[in-house]
Amino acid sequence: MPSQIRKIFSDTVIYTVGSVFNRLLPFLLLPLYTLYFPPAEYGVFSLVYSFWFFVSVFYLYGMETAFQKLFLEASSEGDKKKIFSTTLIMILVTSVVFSIVIYSLSGSIAALLTGSSANGGLIRLLAFILVADSLYRFPMILINSIQRSKLYTAVNSIAVIINVAVNIVLITVFKQGIEAIFYSYLVSYSFLFLISLAYTLKYFGFSFDTHSLKKLLSSAHLFLYFGLFLISMDLIDRFILEYYKGTAVVGIYSACYRIGIVMNLAITGFKVAWTPFFMNLKSDESNKEIFSKIFTYFCYGGLTAFLAFSLLADDLVKVNIGGYTLLNDKYWSGLVVVPYILLAYLFSGLYLNLNVASFFSNKIKYLIISSAAGCVSNIAFNFLLIPEYSMTGAAISTLLSYMVMFFVLYYISQKTYRIVYEWKPILKAAALTFLLYAINIYIPQLLNLSYIYVLIIEFLSIFTLFYVLLGPKAIELAKSYRVKKQLK
After folding, report:
1. CB-side exposure of 212: number of CA atoms within 13 Å?
2. Which residues make beta-bridge pairs with 412?
3. Are 138 and 60 spatial neighbours (Cβ–Cβ below 8 Å)?
């Protein structure tokens, strides 16, 4: 078991480095964006960006998860080739058709999203990006499915560098506006598709298998609903916030939301590693024990990350280096949302851990039911809290809806595929985490401590939690690794 647990978390680290560049990029480029773009302009970008991720669900129509599931279950190389080729050709055709529609309606879409048809150029750019965005995913999923994590990370890392470089050149040298962000995505996504396809060509043939397509679509439509509910949960708050508070508030909220990307990077890295990992353990008699132990370690790591970033985020974004800060001071009013966003991402990761039951029992409806519950509650919470609490209300709504989604899936999945989780130590860990968090929030204010003492308390709290939760486990895993290496 230690070797299997070590593998999932080592793969998570590797995937986190390079697999989630589309999520990492807004964080890496946050200083540039918040320095050059005022909140209202960044708000326009955030609204178009949100539309992008919402529409991408329809471009993919659940094929990502359906493709990976069928590819992993395929018994022969020939079947794998049919599945990959059919998927890629189908996605190419449908993506081009969808983008032609979006391009043709760009002015109307821009007016509806941003209040001005003058932003139609951004929508036209997005039409091209959506094709490249849809295509690159499937060669990368294939690379992930055959568990070539280092190649996966290397390709994504190069794409990160390209995207950052193009952003910097276009914004600082050519003085372009927010359209520079979209040009950068188009260049990096096109590169990513071409290079990943080159590594997976042996699985591709210019053939279209109708039997494979039927199998893909029979699963894909279920994952479409699931994906639609999830993406709505992540994006709907921007549009409700814009309706009540305006574009500038959306810009501030979106920029500070990006601070929580640190947690989401690890969650997404885990997600990429998780599906092929647990699918390969389907016939393992001890898999439930392994999944339970991984869930415990995931909670420990997530709670430690929450404490660290919620305490240090405010300090880090305000560090002044040569007159520049990670987050421009025009955006600091939104930092209050960071702890809620970090916790929301943590619950989304816990939710991922529960996907085992749905996949093993072919009960994808469990994912649909739970994500629908999260989506509906998210909309309700946003309309209830945003008018009174603005950005904070939006962040709390996101947290509460992810909690709803987690508890619904936990309840129904345990009936089908019961896993005995280690709730007692997990709840103790959570209690210690929030005790340390409360100490850091209230004690410095009560005692009026200077900044240096506040920092000392923060670092001591983080170290204490890490040592109590993960110190013994890290030592145990390291010892088992050394023993295994010596035996070899």
Report:
1. 24
2. none
3. no
Nearest Cα to 229, choosing from 418, 375, 22, 54?
Answer: 375
Question: Cα(452)–Cα(441) distance, rounded to whole angstroms?
Answer: 15
Does the model's pTM come out above 0.90? no
DSSP 323: T
Four-residue CA torsion sign, 246, 252, 255, 257: negative
Rounded CA separation 265/20 (Å): 7
Q: Find the DSSP H helices in 246-317.
A: 247-257, 261-279, 287-317
Distance CA 52, CA 450 (A): 45
Secondary structure (3-state) at 361: coil
Torsion of CA 225, 231, 235, 239, to 10 degrees: -20
pLDDT digit of tens for each residue in the chain (488 aa)? 555 666 655 655 565 555 555 555 656 687 888 889 988 898 899 889 889 988 998 999 989 989 998 998 888 999 999 999 999 999 999 999 999 999 999 999 999 998 899 999 999 999 999 999 999 999 999 998 887 878 888 888 888 889 989 999 999 999 999 999 999 999 999 999 999 999 999 999 888 999 999 999 988 887 888 888 888 888 889 889 999 998 889 888 988 887 776 677 777 777 777 877 787 777 777 889 989 998 999 999 899 999 998 998 888 888 777 777 777 788 888 899 999 999 999 999 999 899 888 888 778 889 899 999 999 999 999 999 999 999 999 999 999 999 999 999 999 999 888 999 999 999 999 999 999 999 998 888 888 888 888 889 999 999 999 999 887 665 565 555 454 555 44
Q: Is 44 exposed, middle or buried (0-12, 13-18, 19+ CB in 10 A)?
A: buried
The closest alpha carbon to 344, from 405, 411, 279, 420, belongs to 405
How many CB atoms within 10 Å of residue 214? 10
* Tokens representing residue 406 in the block: 């987690």
DSSP assigned state of 259: G
CA 165 to chain centre: 23
Q: For the chain, give the longest Cα–Cα distance.
A: 72
Q: Retrieve residue 206's tokens.
A: 């210019």
Length of the chain: 488
Place of tokens 């941003």: 114
Tell me, what amino acid is at 391?
M
DSSP assigned state of 324? B
Return the amino acid letter for 483. Answer: V
Q: What is the number of helices (H) and of strands (E) in the chain? A: 20, 0
Q: What is the distance of C-alpha 439 from the center of its chain?
A: 30
